[in-house]
Specification:
334 residues, alpha/beta, Nucleoside Triphosphate Pyrophosphohydrolase, Rossmann fold, eight-stranded mixed β-sheet, six-stranded mixed β-sheet, 10 helices, 14 strands, hydrolase, NUDIX_hydrolase_CS, NUDIX_hydrolase_dom, bis(5'-nucleosyl)-tetraphosphatase (asymmetrical) activity, Nudix_hydrolase_domain
């Protein structure tokens, strides 16, 4: 049994003949001052475990986690901090990797759930019991000892006041037409077909992290990148002049102020911007991060690939907002 770290999300594919990728979550809540988690019982194996399942073709890992939890518990969730995953050999000799997040329930009419694909009801032949348990009872109820590893991490984050988070997602716009191939003004340079595909691929990832507010550069390639999510979630995006390339060059301080405002708002949000703007964005995020998280932020140009998202997990502390986790997600194209 090997424990996998959870500082980031990789969507690169290993050999599917030998590696089974799966994802799930530890759904948590606080009741009467105590931390509780949700376990499922599978009659086929007669075991108690965390909701999880295999990655479907074309799915990013966070999308799988949110979908599988809903399929197995009957309730939609929003993903929070990544937790340690597990890696082990199946009886058939294949490597199985399980990726975990902390998660909380979200209302079925929230914008993020509206943006998700429909999920079938719980199949009682697969899951015949779902229970909320205190963490000590849950640790004793889990069938496999290794499943206590992500639970221990969840408890530690709770004890340190870092478990209750919201996501601030920073996305670089999808692949755009080359400057040399475009004869219009820079603000209207469009996405390529690949860029449009990347925009569509972002939708289920943003939904998995519960995004319910969207801020974007006014320039076309950014506005078009977030349009599929805004449409699916039935959200009005907030276009901003501050995060265009030209306005950032004139006043980086306005970009910094916008990022601070988004951090302080404490709402699951998306910012879509351009590569030259990212150093300012990352600098502000680093100023609000603990050291280990700041060191995990991208440091080399291009910082994010076209269509890639940086998911930061933000908690509100007595000293203001703190970034307590970060992961990069590049959704696979169908």
């Amino acid at each position: 049994m090997r424990v996998r770290g959870a500082t980031g999300v990789s969507t690169s594919a290993d050999d599917p003949a030998t590696v089974i990728e799966s994802a799930g979550a530890l759904v948590w809540r606080v009741r009467d001052g105590g931390l509780q988690v949700q376990l499922i019982h599978r009659p086929r194996y007669d075991d108690w475990s965390w909701p999880k399942g295999k990655v479907d073709p074309g799915e990013a890992l966070p999308t799988t986690a949110a979908r599988e939890v809903t399929e197995e518990t009957g309730k939609p969730v929003s993903l929070g901090l990544p937790l340690p995953g597990l890696e082990y050999l199946t009886p058939e000799g294949r490597v199985k990797r399980v990726h975990y997040w902390a998660a909380t329930r979200v209302h079925s009419r929230s914008p993020a759930v509206t943006a998700r694909a429909p999920v079938p009801p719980v199949d009682p032949a697969e899951i015949d019991d779902v229970r909320w348990l205190g963490v000590d009872e849950a640790a004793g109820r889990l069938t496999r000892a290794a499943d206590r590893i992500p639970l221990e991490a969840l408890i530690e984050e709770h004890e340190k006041g870092r478990l209750a988070t919201t996501a601030l997602v920073v996305a670089r716009h999808g692949k755009a037409l080359a400057r040399t191939s475009w004869h219009g003004d820079e603000a209207s340079r469009p996405l390529t077909p690949t860029g449009h595909a990347q925009s569509a691929a972002l939708v289920p990832v943003l939904a998995a992290f519960g995004v319910d507010a969207v801020v974007t550069s006014r320039w076309r390639r950014c506005a078009d990148t977030i349009e599929p999510y805004s449409r699916a979630a039935r959200l009005e995006s907030l276009p901003s002049e501050y995060v265009t390339e030209a306005d950032h060059e004139r006043s980086p301080s306005r970009v910094a102020a916008l990022i601070r405002a988004l951090l302080e708002a404490g709402a699951p949000s998306l910012l879509c911007t351009h590569r030259p703007v990212l150093p300012t964005v990352l600098d502000v995020l680093g100023q609000h991060s603990r050291r280990s998280v700041a060191s995990a932020l991208p440091t080399k140009d291009p910082y994010l690939e076209p269509g890639e998202a940086l998911v930061t997990h933000v908690t509100q502390s007595a000293k203001g907002p703190r970034v307590v986790g970060v992961e990069k997600v590049l959704p696979p194209l169908h």
